[in-house]
Amino acid sequence: MIRAATLVGTLLLLATPAAAQSFDCPTLYDEGDYAAAADCFEALADQGNGNGHLFYNLGNARYREGSLGEAILGWRKAALYLPRDGDLKANLKRGRDLAKDDLAPPGEREALARTLLGPYDALSASELLLVGAVAWALLLILGAIRFTRPLPGWGAGAALLGFVVLFGLGGWSVRSYTISQHPDAVVLAEEVTLRSGRDVLSTDLARLHEGAEVRVVEVSDGWVQVALSTGPRGWLSAGAVGLVQW
Amino acid sequence: MRRVFLIAVLAVSLLPTATLAGTLGMTVDSKDLEVGQTTQVHITVRGGSAGRPVISAPAGLELVQLGVDKDKGVERGRLTITHAYTYTLTATQPGTYTFGPARCDIDGQNKTSATHTITVTEGTGRRSSGRTRNPTRRSSRGEGATGAPAAGQRGGDYYAIATTSDDRPYVGESITYDVEIGSFLRTLGKTSWEQPTFSPLSSEPGVDPAQEERQEILDGRRYRVNTIRLPLFAIEDGTVEIDPAKFTMTVMRRGSGAINVGQEVSFEANGLRVRVRPLPREGRPTGFGGAVGRFGVEASLDQSNLVTGGTATLTVRVVGAGSLRGQELNIRLPDSVKVYDEQPDTRGIITGDGLKTEVIYRKTLVPLQPGTFEIERIELPFFDPDEGAYRTARSQALKLTVTGEPVVDAAVVARSAELTSAKEAVEVLGTDILPLHTGGRMLGDARLRLTSPLVLGLLLLPLLGFGGIAAKAGGQRFAGTEGGRKRARGKAGKEARTAARRAAKDDDGGAAEEALRDYLSARLKRSGAALSATDGPDVVRAAGAPDDLADHLGRILERGEAIRYGGASARGFASTIADWIDDADRSWK
Fold first, then answer.
1. Which of A165, A181, A197 is the last residue of a domain?
2. Which site among B433, B448, B472, B478 would you substitute to test the A interface, given the most A Cβ atoms closer than 10 Å to its Cβ?
3. Do A22 and B442 lie within an 8 Å CB cutoff?
4. Is the CB of residue B443 less than 8 Å from the CB of residue A19?
5. Best CA proximity match to A99, nearest among A136, A70, A64, A58
């Protein structure tokens, strides 16, 4: 029975367009048709395959195609799912090295904060949610057992589990809010002008180049207000940037 | 009389309008200009409602608006607004020009200002640094470029000036080739430039050119000025002709209408001549290696006491202004000390005063014999171009004390020292990204949401289980309290009442009596099963029941015994019990 169900499931999986295309995309990449490979990976993502490996591959294809901004955007999206992936870190560093602007990525932390928030930064939003939910379940199960029999070390264990619940669910909430409301953005245009207002007549504040990473403050009427890691804020045309979101 | 009065009133009413009619004025600060010079133009528009003045400059003059000041006032009961427009007027070609008039609609009337005659003559321009010769060539203007002054002069829309820090350096002396590129117009992108040939001057290896950007007001115009400083090194004496450096950049110019358009312009800096002087032969010290500049030498040992076979590092630091490339230091050390040289670490940086150099020499010393050794003062002879004389920089002498037995197997010692100094930096041959992540890993949605079944299960199922167990445990704990017992009694009483009514309906005396005893158990905090007609009334009376209710209970219990043991009729007995329970509920609080 189980074997039959597995076989049917596999056949169904192979029959879906997503699966069929997924086997084509790396082939296109290996054949050197990077633009087609990138389109293929993007089509997979559009079909609901929210997956770090897929965005990683998309970044690689865009990089080979010569679109540095799109490549960094793909890798940054992949990092939302795979924050500890070594390949991804190496490729993202390579992309950032090639970016023209000497601009630290937004959200880069000082040494102390990096140490203290290391566990938070090392986990993806999904992992934070899972950690919080598992700790929550454990806390309740142990609490229920304690109604029937005494549990040695219950106080310390409950405090620890409570902390993990707060860490996981709180961290997930903060991460989800940040990604949806104040995501990072990557400049996709070759050169774009940071302006003081939402029109082309406002003062030019800075010129950003492809691959520059900024933090989004507000999105409004085809314009995006961004903050540079060096401090200045200004408006960019929304079409010139890609948002690092799910 | 009346007509005269009306005329007078009309005249008075029209007076403010006549006297406060809008005005348009234009002044020019200076009407005699040289090519490249700039003056300011002021246009004042005064009136209730006015548009923007319209003025154009003839070819040979360039007009750029700087700003506008607005001032409001009430004059003779009327609001008057004054707009003061300021422009810069730059002379670009010699000639005599009629500038103006300015035109403006004020309060519905078309006003015209006076005109001015501007005379522009060939300018003498500014000269470059006195240390360099004057520009020798004019700039060759790029296509459509109208704003570049003569090569080597500041002004115009953009310019480039080249100088050297010294036009008569000595052989081996480090100088800088400085280029200043100024632009009054906004530029797009980077300015590209073609470096001239400096031979036989050589660029300083490992030293990056310095670049700085600033803003400067020149003849009332704000320029964005970039300065590039290239370090150069005179290899041999003689005269060096440096060709003009060529520049290309894109400037923003006003096109037709109010839209700015980018225009690529090319222009040149001035050429330069540098005479390189030979170093004097008189007074040249022994061991002079060609260092020209001003230098100091420091020497230090990381440890002055060690055992034979141990290692100490001798660090010699030479710092100063000037070039030290290829400079060797003569360091004399005792024969019983093995010496392992490391590559000197050279750093150079261009500052406002020229090239600053730091060279650090490191030697690993391995003493093979015990004793006290003196490392003599380390000397660096150099030529000081400012004083035109040779000098010698000296470090302090150092002392090294070695204890222990003589080391016989020097090779072993040498090998250990080599291990620390023989490492080489990894040579990077290329860079690339890492390969694709293949397989089925990239399929599926890896994102967990709050509504994902796994998360919902983890969050809700334990919560439901916990809630159930907690409720049960809480109920058990409550049942042991007085409140819990009271509630249980109330419940039991209610059940007994219901059973009694059911028994009355069925006229089942036995069931009714059983329900009565359950009721009494619930009310009395003791079992009612053993109550008899004798003690029952007293017990319920003691529990607060009224006397008549207690007496009635006694009669019911007595009848029950009679039915059970004496064969009395049970008809209506169940109804009697049900009625008694109803009375008890009402009167027995």
1. A181
2. B433
3. yes
4. yes
5. A70
Q: What is the β-pairing status of strands B238-242 and B201-203?
A: unpaired
| SS3 label, residue B197 | coil
Identity of the residue numbered B444: G
Please say which residue of A181, A202, A222 terminates a domain. Answer: A181
Strand order in the sheet with A191-195: A204-209, A191-195, A233-237, A223-227, A213-220, A184-187, A241-243
CATH code assigned to B292-421: 2.60.40
- State the Cα–Cα distance between residues B544 and B551, nearest whole angstrom: 13
Does residue B155 sit in helix, strand or coil?
coil
Q: Does B436 touch chain A (CB under 8 A)?
A: yes
| B363, B314 Cβ separation under 8 angstroms | yes
Please report, for the domain that includes residue A76, its CATH number: 1.25.40.10
How far B198 CA sits from the closest chain A CA (Å)? 30
Retrieve residue A14's tokens: 């192979």
Distance CA A128, CA A175 (A): 9
State how far residue A152 is from chain B, nearest Cα, in angstroms. Answer: 19
Class of the CATH-defined domain B158-276: mainly beta
B469 with A90: Cβ contact below 8 A: no
Residue B330 structure tokens? 């003569």
**CA dist., res. B311 & res. B337, Å (int):** 10
Does A105 map to a domain?
no
Distance CA B181, CA B225 (A): 6
Residues of A in contact with B447 (CB under 8 A): 50, 81, 125-126, 246
Residues A119 and A176 in one domain: yes
Give the H or E element holding residue B341. Answer: strand B337-341
- In chain B, which among 156-195 make CB contacts under 8 A with chain A? 189
- Are B355 and B204 in contact, with CB atoms under 8 Å apart? yes
> Domain containing A160: what range?
113-181
Instruction: Provide the sign of the torsion angle of the four alpha carbons A61, A63, A66, A68, taken in this order.
Output: positive
3-state secondary structure of B164: strand
Instruction: Give the pTM.
Output: 0.44
Rounded CA separation B556/B509 (Å): 11
B477 min Cα distance to partner chain A (Å): 11
**What is the ipTM score, two decimals?**
0.82
Q: CA B5 to CA B561: how far, in whole Å?
A: 134
Given the structure tokens 């200045």, which residue do they identify? A232
Answer positive or negative: Cα dihedral of A116, A120, A123, A128.
Answer: positive
The count of domains in chain A is: 3
Sign of CA pseudo-dihedral A94, A97, A101, A104? positive
Q: Which among B339, B305, B332, B300 is positioned nearest to B316, based on CA atoms?
A: B300
Cα angle, residue B464 at apex, residues B460 and B469 outer, rounded to 5°: 150
Q: DSSP states of B290-308 as a string?
A: S-EEEEEEEEEES-SEEET
pLDDT digit string (tens) for chain A, length 246 residues: 344 444 444 444 444 444 444 457 888 898 888 998 999 899 888 888 888 999 999 999 999 999 999 999 999 999 999 999 999 999 999 999 999 998 889 988 888 998 999 999 999 999 999 999 999 999 999 988 888 888 888 999 999 999 999 999 999 999 999 999 999 999 999 999 999 998 878 888 999 999 999 999 999 888 999 999 988 899 999 999 999 998
Cα distance from A145 to chain B (closest Cα, Å)? 9
What is the bridge-based pairing of β-strands B32-34 and B116-121? parallel
Q: Examine residue A103 and state whether it is found in any structural domain, yes or no.
A: no
d(CA A234, CA A244): 18
Written in H, E and C, the secondary structure of B411-464 is HHHHHHHHHHHCCCCCCCCCCCCCCCCCCHHHCCCCCCCCCCHHHHHHHHHHHH
